[in-house]
Amino acid sequence: MDKRTWIKNEIAAWRAEGLVDAATAERLEARYAAAPGRLSWGILLAGVFGAFLVGLGVIALVAANWDAFGRAARTAVAFAPVVLCGGATLLFAAKEKTSAAVMEPMGVLWFAAVAAGATIVAQTYQVGDSVAGLLLFIAVLAYPALFAVRARVATVVWTVFAIVWACVKADEGGKSAVLAWGALGGIPALSAAAWTWAVRCRGEGALTASCRGAMGLAWAAGLPLVAVLAMPWHIGDDWHWALFFGAALATGVLERWTGHKAWSVAGTLVAIGAAVPTVAPWHHGDGLVFLFYCISLAYALFLAVQGVWRRNLWRLNAGTLLAAWLVLGKFCGSDVPFTVKGVVLIAAGVALWALNFWMVRLGKREAAK
Questions:
Q1: Contact assessment for residue 4 and residue 200, using Cβ atoms and an 8 Å cutoff
Q2: Strand ranges for 265-344 from DSSP E
Q3: By C-alpha distance, which of 112, 168, 88 is closest to 136?
Q4: CA–CA distance from 72 to each of 57, 75, 318, 333 (Å)?
Q5: Which 8-state DSSP code applies to residue 278?
């Protein structure tokens, strides 16, 4: 339990026991709501990077003396860091030292230890020759650690790792409906379970929001990629856009459902990335490409209008720039004289600047009221 959750529970207990009234309890909650987050960023970054350096140092020491070890000794050395991470986690839990500053680096170190140990054992005993099999083995062994350390960073790393496994498996010739649907259903389900557990134990904060955005990017960009690579039936290159747009839309639904904006930010980035190439003329199936081009243009205008409506410069600029790219990309590829193209480009730049200037001034006026 982190400090924020602990103090919230304590204040609730004081209120229930009549030690403080409702107004005092609310003031205490407001006072301590943001206190733990101020110190965590520097400690967390240093801890995660420190764990990474420790892992590299251990690998360097083992590599320098590798020839002196027999097979049994190599196996013991390979899994010693995994056992030590598990023991350290149990020790920290017994002493109630389970803050994010301790467990986030531990999660990264534990995952790295599992990956290194599995790789060493596979190389020592010549177990299999499939990279995808090794990645799956690491993912399975590392998954219980996510619940033990309740770490958000490690959960995101595991999700990306699992997506990479599915892509490598498909690339090795494993295209099948079982792989496709198993990955599309299993990876989000497993990672969502670990993510929910970590967030419930850690609470909200800047790190949670950042990791939520990273998880959204992994789901919205990685899972459609898995579908494209693993689906055994022919979808057609032009339909790949529908998968990415659909995944981006799903993150928007998550934002509506949970109220966390990081989901929609991730989905917006993926949708913009999927919309950008629809302007290219070198795709097959002109009718279908034009349909997705129109959808992309409508989405760009929606973002721009939403940015104005919500006074959100980020969405305004994202939508405006995407719309400009889509329109000017077609325009510049036409037979219109370059003089006209230059004038239009200048006008578009001035219009973008003027719109931003108007938004900033409007925001200042509303803040002054």
A1: no
A2: none
A3: 168
A4: 22, 5, 57, 65
A5: G
Per-residue model confidence (pLDDT) at position 27: 79
Q: Angle, nearest 10°, between helix axes 177-202 and 206-217?
A: 170
Q: Does the pLDDT at position 236 exceed 60? A: no
What distance in Å separates the CA atoms of residue 286 and residue 282, rounded to the nearest whole number? 9
Distances (CA, A) of 74 to 59, 67, 71, 130: 12, 10, 5, 21
What is the spatial distance between Cα 133 and Cα 121, in angstroms, rounded to a whole number? 13
Q: What percent of the chain has pLDDT over 70?
A: 78
And the tokens for 186? 């299993």
Query: How far is 208 from 213, CA to CA, in rounded Å?
Result: 9
List b or e across 114-135, with b for residues whose CB sees 16 or more CB atoms inside 10 angstroms.
Answer: bbbbbebbbebeeeeeeebbbb
Indicate the pTM of the whole model.
Answer: 0.73
For the stretch 56-97, pLDDT in tens is 776 676 666 666 677 777 778 778 888 888 898 899 888 878
d(CA 53, CA 109): 10
* 285-342 pLDDT, tens digit each: 456 777 888 888 889 888 888 888 877 778 888 888 888 888 877 777 666 676 766 7
Take residue 247 and report the two structure tokens written for it.
Answer: 């995944």
Distance (Å, whole) CA 191 – CA 214: 12
Q: Give the DSSP per-residue string, 25-48.
A: HHHHHHHHSSHHHHHHHHHHHHHH
Residue 284 has pLDDT above 50, yes or no: no
Residue 38 has pLDDT above 70, yes or no: no
Given the structure tokens 């950042």, which residue do they identify?
210
Mean pLDDT, residues 3-22: 78
- Cβ-defined contacts of 229-236 (< 8 Å, 24+): 229/166, 229/167, 229/170, 229/171, 229/175, 230/166, 230/167, 230/169, 230/170, 230/174, 230/175, 230/176, 230/179, 230/180, 230/183, 231/175, 231/177, 231/180, 232/175, 232/176, 232/177, 232/180, 236/285, 236/288
| Highest mean pLDDT: which range of 36-40, 50-54, 151-155 | 151-155
Rounded-to-integer distance, Cα 296 and Cα 283, Å? 15
The DSSP letter of residue 284 is S
